Amino acid sequence: MPASFELKEGTSLPAVKKSIIQDNINLYAKASGDFNPIHIDADYARNTPLGGTVAHGMLILAYISQMMTEAFGHNWLSSGRLNVRFRAPARPGDVITISGSIRQLEKIDGYHIIDCDVLCSNQNDEPVITGNAKVKVKSNENSS
Amino acid sequence: MSDYLKAVEEESVIYRGTGLVPPMAVAALALKALADAISMPPGTVHVSQEFDFMATVNINDVLTSRARVNRVQERGKLHLVNVDINVTNQENRPVLSGKTGFILPVS
Rounded to two decimals, what is the model's pTM? Predict the structure, then answer.
């Protein structure tokens, strides 16, 4: 596994920090094909209940996937599971911290099933995304 | 692909020169296909998401995405809609599955 940390319940995963900027939101719209004006049109977004543009939920979710990829490498790409709820929008100017910790560790048929709590929170410690991520890793890939 | 990596500031060495595609890039394309097929009114909110990444995806893979509305609940002025998504590659091998939850205003 790429990241070096102890594989046991309670271990925190290496956190990721991202600044939300409108340029990246615009790029994500282009890359994903999601041009909903709430993400990219400041004039439109100003006149909605959100009051301004917000980042795509899937952009923020991609940051969770990055954290899991850094921690577990190819295993995440081929066996990762995400289950999340979107709690609040992320806006340009926000700083999002993506964190996780190992909630449960099971050993089955030569594999570790690693179940993690994951959280994206903003600079005010408000949750943006909460949920759970699971990955399967061969037992001889343990890092400690 | 390079636009996606730049947009999400993905710097993992796992993608450098390997041809591997980030699983969330596959997911984004699957959701785009869904959004193209189902008209989402203004005020639609994406409230929940599940993904199961079942196999790695490489640049030049040909992916087929299928979506199916599996539940619609009416709660007052809102519809709660759940959609199942499945993505397979050119060998008909599943690479991603997911469940997406939306809240839509009743028009």
Answer: 0.92
